[in-house]
Amino acid sequence: MPKDKLLRVAGLPAVQALFATAPARVERLFFLGELRREVSDYCGVLSRARKPYRQVGTEELARVAGTVLHGGVVAIARPQPPRPFEPGEPAHWAKDGKLLLLLDGIGNPHNLGAIARTATNIRSGARTPVSGMVHALTLLAVLLIFAYQSTKP
What span, in angstroms and rounded, lies between the C-alpha atoms of 23 and 53? Predict the structure, then answer.
């Protein structure tokens, strides 16, 4: 698989979840020395599959992760293959009155939050954009109140 198609999964909880659900997708593992004990089982999995893993320094891990917010471990993995679309499944959900939300390749996690809020809003009976605006203004008010409170001695 081309290098540009591989994903960087950073942080111990995310890497643990990846190894728990799809260890074969992991191509390489990089980690800081202080997490050696936590990732030793994952190194064994990669060793048996003849895939590389390496303990690195903070600067190199930041370079591999593409950010300094890497949580001490980064797995380089193949993307999750999309589930095959079963045309009968959405029809079954529609009969039950369940909301159907299909998301494919969300590249920006901030978009996912907006999509989830919109879906929740619709499920709650919203019919116009006004409810979304009220939600945004409420969040802004809460944020401003907390910001003001945090500046008080």
Answer: 13
